[in-house]
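can u do me a favor
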């Protein structure tokens, strides 16, 4: 096994499947199966999920929302998605537990790094919800922060594109995929991998990241086994 402790970041939109909103049962089940495959191999898994399929604070400001309230709604949206993932994993017979960055028992336990490490050792998938708990941040930043805190071997960013490209592959047919790239190159080539706060957090703490397509069944297991899937971003 190439990686024995991972933090998997999923966007809220990916949970919606073909629609842009809501939660797709089939996507949930497929993701849960992939997670289970790696847990069974003995990999410790933490998950951070976004909330974009339900609400984003910034988009609310366009219709007059106070940014703070909007961001709190966005953070709560990540809790809803996290509960859905927890339930999909437990339905398949594995252990999963939601932690929240804002106190809200009994929905989930308040995030505590040591409790997460303990649960992961016990083969429990830990879903770290509520983002960082602060407005003006994103779940990419939460994923970067938590991956460093729990000492993950790698941050895995599941997206609908299969890696980092020279240009947007959905717009430019000549776009070429990088197998690996350094943080410095990402900056000098002005590539958009994640928001700058999240990116800096990973770079400054030497946290390698793999951007990959989570919608291809088996991809997560391949990465854990050390196969070159997606794009590896590292120092
Ligand atoms: N959010 C926040 N602080 C955080 C993480 C998230 O305020 O630490 C809010 C923010 O409004 C954001 C929303 O939650 O727009 C959903 O998160 P994100 O946009 O990262 O979700 P994704 O794009 O991954 O689905």
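np, heres the sequence
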């Amino acid at each position: 096994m190439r990686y024995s402790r991972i933090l998997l970041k999923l966007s809220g939109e990916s949970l919606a499947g073909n629609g842009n909103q809501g939660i797709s049962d089939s996507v949930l089940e497929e993701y849960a199966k992939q997670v289970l495959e790696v847990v069974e191999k003995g990999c410790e898994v933490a998950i951070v999920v976004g909330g974009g399929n339900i609400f984003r604070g910034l988009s609310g400001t366009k219709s007059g929302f106070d940014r703070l309230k909007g961001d709190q709604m966005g953070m709560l949206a990540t809790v809803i998605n996290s509960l859905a993932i927890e339930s999909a994993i437990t339905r398949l017979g594995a252990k999963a537990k939601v932690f929240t960055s804002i106190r809200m028992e009994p929905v989930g336990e308040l995030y505590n790094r040591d409790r997460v490490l303990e649960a992961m050792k016990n083969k429990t998938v830990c879903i770290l919800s509520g983002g960082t708990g602060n407005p003006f941040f994103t779940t990419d930043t939460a994923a970067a922060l938590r991956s460093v805190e729990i000492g993950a071997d790698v941050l895995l960013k599941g997206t609908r594109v299969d890696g980092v490209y020279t240009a947007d592959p959905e717009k430019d047919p000549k776009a070429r995929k990088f197998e690996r790239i350094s943080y410095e190159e990402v900056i000098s080539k002005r590539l958009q991998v994640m928001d700058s706060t999240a990116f800096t957090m990973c770079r400054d703490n030497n946290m390698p990241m793999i951007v990959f397509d989570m919608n291809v069944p088996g991809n997560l297991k391949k990465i854990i086994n050390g196969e070159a899937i997606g794009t590896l971003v590292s120092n």
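DSSP finds nine helices and nine strands in the chain. hope that helps!!
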